[in-house]
Amino acid sequence: MDTNGNLYTFIYSTVMVIVVATALSFTALKLQPLQEMNVKNEKMQNILTSVRVESTAETANDVFAKYITKSFVVNSKGEEVQGVAAFDINLKQMYKKDAGERELPLYEATLADGTKKIIIPLTGKGLWGPIWGYVALESDMNTVFGAVFDHKGETPGLGADINASWFEEPFTGKTIYEDGKLIGIRVHKGGKGAAIAAGDTEHGVDAISGGTITSKALEAMVLDCLSNYKIYLENNKK
Fold first, then answer.
1. N- to C-terminal Cα distance for the chain?
2. Which residues have a Cβ under 8 Å from the Cβ of 131 and sit 6 or more positions away?
3. Cα angle for residues 19, 25, 31 (degrees, 5° grid)
4. Between β-strands 204-206 and 186-188, what pairing exists: parallel, antiparallel or unpaired?
5. Most CB atoms within 10 A, among 8, 98, 142, 226?
6. What is the torsional sign of CA 226, 159, 53, 82?
7. Measured in whole angstroms, how far is the alpha carbon of residue 153 from the centre of its chain?
8. What pLDDT shows up at residue 38?
9. Listed residue (52, 46, 59) closest to 115, CA to CA
10. Which helix (H) or strand (E) holds 131?
11. Of 232, 236, 131, whose CA–CA distance to 187 is shortest?
């Protein structure tokens, strides 16, 4: 065959495409279990972080089994749903359903001191892409014990700082109800000291300076997601 001819070039290109595609597909299949394990470990670590329990990718599974003593699913009436695994629920897809059809995950942590915390997953939309997180509540279903947030593509040094400890830590001790009404956590524009200046020390935290849009998107995410658990929270206050 003439190696300079069009037929040779076509056959060679076709064979190379098939070989490369096959190699990529094989690699993707081989790596898929590892990728799924990494996603699972990261999710467990985030849940644990919301209740201030440290873990690594290597220890996440064991630590999760130790401290997360119950995981379950509730419907729009706040009732537990049997036969559904909380960990396997795609929260983003679930929120695309009508409110009455949603089945939402919850996690209960039992800490070393014997106290129990309820952990609520969050999902929302930031300035440039998805944001998500977990809020852990005390048994009064009102006081925040801890919170952890993350994002896919917020601006570095600005909105991306929602996953910084200095932004997350002030959520601890805040309350999500005001005069019996679920309000979530207010995020006040103005940077450091904005919540104090607004006289909102019970329910408010400072927004990220220069990252107001992401901060307010996070505020909306917290309230929107907590609202879906409102009946459960009010039925289980202690």
1. 83
2. 123, 124, 125, 149, 150, 151, 152, 154, 162, 214, 217, 218, 221
3. 135
4. parallel
5. 226
6. positive
7. 14
8. 77
9. 52
10. strand 130-137
11. 131
Structural contact between residues 203 and 178, judged by C-beta atoms closer than 8 angstroms? yes
Domain-wise residue ranges, the chain: 68-235
Place of tokens 């065959």: 1
Q: How far apart are CA 169 and CA 160, in angstroms?
A: 16
Whole-number average pLDDT of the chain: 92
Q: How many Cα atoms occupy the beta-carbon half-sphere of 142 within 13 Å?
A: 14
Q: What percent of the chain has pLDDT over 70?
A: 94
CB atoms within 10 A of CB 159: 24
Is 112 in contact with 105 (CB distance < 8 Å)? no
Per-residue pLDDT tens over the stretch 57-89 = 899 999 999 999 999 999 999 999 999 999 999
Predicted confidence at residue 32, as pLDDT, reads 64
What is the Cα–Cα distance from 219 to 164, expressed in whole angstroms? Answer: 16
Which residue pairs, CB below 8 angstroms and at least 24 apart, start in 145-148?
145/50, 145/51, 145/52, 145/117, 145/172, 146/49, 146/50, 146/51, 146/52, 146/117, 146/171, 146/172, 147/50, 147/171, 147/172, 148/46, 148/49, 148/50
**Residue 146: per-residue pLDDT:** 98
